[in-house]
């Protein structure tokens, strides 16, 4: 158990200047992560440039735990695109495919109907009461790329928050007890 | 500097970086594929063509769909999602796309096929504009990779039209 003794010794021997340096470098890491995230939001034009697939409604293409990269451009929404949308009043975004498009002559606005590949029926059951179609403002982005399995980290940390605390605690301990 | 924690941290960071680079290269290799798909759709029969009580036109039709999409598969392809959509315009809407049938092709051997089917999803217009209208049938495909960028494209087949009267 010399490892625990070493850790306790180094925690006791911390000086103020060293502590401040550690705090500043930790702050730099957090803010550069934030800069990257906000930068991605600007480049892709979407509020959340990366989403995790939470349900099995798009199997076998997308499984629970996959990560999707989103992009939102001014291009019109067309049938076949995989879109991520929010229903009014629900906070969890849904990733499904567009199967019907009606674009108005005069205003250029679109009515869009979606369906999950693995679902039997279309998404009218998921929409708000009385809503038959989605409009452009409901749609957060189009899926353009995908990475398998990486999203499981987020799912585990959301469903068992104790693991999140353990991980952050361990990382914090690592930074504080480093001899640099 | 040489503690177990540091070594584990270094190992994990390195392996995640290498995996990310491998995924990116796999995705880039999809661009090397040259594609030459072909498809043909015949409308065998308009089963019925009616006006719904809420005043929207609805039609049911039976189609023969044949296609050869084998050249779209690469080693990085997980599946091909294909669907047939009818495209037309009306005085109210500049573009309407209605998906009639879709399928998932999991492997290259299944990508050359022929199917006789009626429309899987209801073909309902927003309005009563379908009589005598010309429409296109498009076969869209969506290449879903094992990792990386997704591609989508389509073949447009023209020359179809609805009957002049309800039946």
From TrEMBL, chain A:
It comes from Hibiscus syriacus. CDD domains: S26_SPase_I. It is found in: Endoplasmic reticulum membrane. It catalyses: Cleavage of hydrophobic, N-terminal signal or leader sequences from secreted and periplasmic proteins. This is Signal peptidase complex catalytic subunit SEC11. Residues 37-114 form the Peptidase S24/S26A/S26B/S26C domain. GO terms for biological process: signal peptide processing. It comes from the Eukaryota. NCBIfam families: sigpep_I_arch. GO terms for cellular component: signal peptidase complex. Catalytic component of the signal peptidase complex (SPC) which catalyzes the cleavage of N-terminal signal sequences from nascent proteins as they are translocated into the lumen of the endoplasmic reticulum. Specifically cleaves N-terminal signal peptides that contain a hydrophobic alpha-helix (h-region) shorter than 18-20 amino acids. It is a single-pass type II membrane protein. Its main location: endoplasmic reticulum. Belongs to the peptidase S26B family. Its EC number is 3.4.21.89. The chain crosses the membrane at residues 20-37, 139-156, 162-178. Keywords: Hydrolase, Membrane, Protease, Signal-anchor, Transmembrane, Transmembrane helix. One of its GO terms (molecular function) is signal peptidase activity. Gene3D superfamilies: Umud Fragment, subunit A (2.10.109.10). Pfam families: Peptidase_S24 (PF00717).
């Amino acid at each position: 158990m010399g490892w625990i003794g070493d850790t306790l010794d180094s925690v006791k021997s911390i000086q103020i200047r060293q502590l401040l340096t550690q705090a500043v470098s930790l702050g730099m890491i957090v803010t550069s992560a934030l800069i990257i995230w906000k930068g991605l939001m600007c480049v892709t034009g979407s509020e959340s440039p990366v989403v995790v697939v939470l349900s099995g409604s798009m199997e076998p293409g997308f499984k629970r735990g996959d990560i999707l990269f989103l992009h939102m451009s001014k291009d019109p929404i067309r049938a076949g695109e995989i879109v991520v949308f929010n229903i009014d009043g629900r906070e969890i975004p849904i990733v499904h495919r567009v199967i019907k498009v009606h674009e108005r002559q005069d205003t250029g606005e679109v009515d869009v109907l979606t369906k999950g590949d693995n679902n039997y029926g279309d998404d009218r059951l998921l929409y708000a009461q009385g809503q038959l179609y989605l409009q452009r403002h409901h749609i957060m982005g189009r899926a353009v790329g995908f990475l398998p399995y990486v999203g499981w980290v987020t799912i585990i940390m959301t469903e068992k928050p104790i693991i999140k605390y353990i991980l952050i605690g361990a990382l914090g301990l690592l930074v504080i007890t480093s001899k640099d | 500097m040489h503690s177990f924690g540091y070594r584990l941290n270094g190992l994990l960071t390195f392996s995640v970086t290498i995996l990310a680079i491998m995924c990116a290269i796999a995705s880039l290799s999809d661009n090397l594929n040259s594609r030459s798909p072909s498809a043909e759709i015949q409308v065998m029969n308009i089963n019925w063509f009616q006006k719904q009580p809420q005043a929207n036109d609805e039609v049911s039709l039976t189609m023969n769909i044949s296609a050869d999409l084998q050249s779209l598969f690469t080693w990085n392809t997980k599946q091909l999602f294909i669907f047939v959509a009818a495209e037309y315009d009306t005085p109210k809407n500049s573009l309407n796309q209605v998906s009639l049938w879709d399928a998932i092709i999991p492997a290259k051997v299944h990508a050359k096929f022929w199917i006789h089917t009626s429309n899987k999803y209801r073909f309902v217009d927003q309005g009563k504009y379908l009589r005598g209208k010309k429409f296109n049938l498009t076969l869209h495909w969506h290449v879903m990779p094992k990792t990386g960028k997704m591609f989508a494209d389509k073949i447009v087949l023209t020359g179809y039209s609805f009957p002049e009267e309800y039946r």
